[in-house]
Design brief:
It holds the Pfam family CBS. The chain has 139 residues and is α+β, with helices and mostly antiparallel strands. It is 30% helix and 20% strand. The protein has helices spanning 24-34, 53-59, 82-85, 99-108, 128-137; strands at 18-19, 38-43, 46-52, 113-118, 121-127. The longest helix has 11 residues, at 24-34.
């Protein structure tokens, strides 16, 4: 197994983001159409939060509807903003952070994705799935 591999080797570089002014309906549509579970929230080029699909499930009955449906009862979504629902106290890493260090952070915390930020600019995202896929490739 490679020991000194930077996270830039396995992170997602073309990151799908939400603007802090977007609504939760937009967020849900992105989660479902792109089949992703974490979306960084930005204000301009600065990352200000992270929204997970689980965050949406906590405030809605979205888990009770058919995953293939494109529409949901949006009454609950209209009661909250993205900024109210997203995680705000982010832990981030740089693109040169070693994969081992990222794995240690994710194994000790209760989240499953980290934004990758260089010079205050979002350059990627790394998830537990990225780490598992990397591990599988090593065998």
């Amino acid at each position: 197994m490679k020991r000194r591999t930077p996270i830039s080797d396995i992170m997602t570089k073309e990151v799908i983001t939400l603007n802090h002014t977007d609504d939760l309906e937009t967020a849900e549509r992105i989660f479902k159409t792109k089949k992703i579970r974490h979306i960084p929230v930005v204000s301009g080029e600065k990352i200000i939060g992270m929204l997970s699909y689980t965050d949406l499930l906590r405030i809605s009955f979205a888990d009770a509807i058919d995953e293939d449906e494109d529409s949901v009862d949006t009454v609950v979504y209209n009661m909250f903003t993205i900024e109210q629902v997203m995680a705000k106290n982010l832990v981030s890493v740089t693109s040169t952070t070693l994969i081992k260090e990222v794995a240690e952070i994710l194994s000790k915390r209760e989240f499953h994705a980290l934004p990758v930020v260089d010079n205050d600019k979002l350059v990627g995202i790394v998830t537990t799935t990225d780490l598992i896929n990397y591990l599988i490739e090593q065998f």
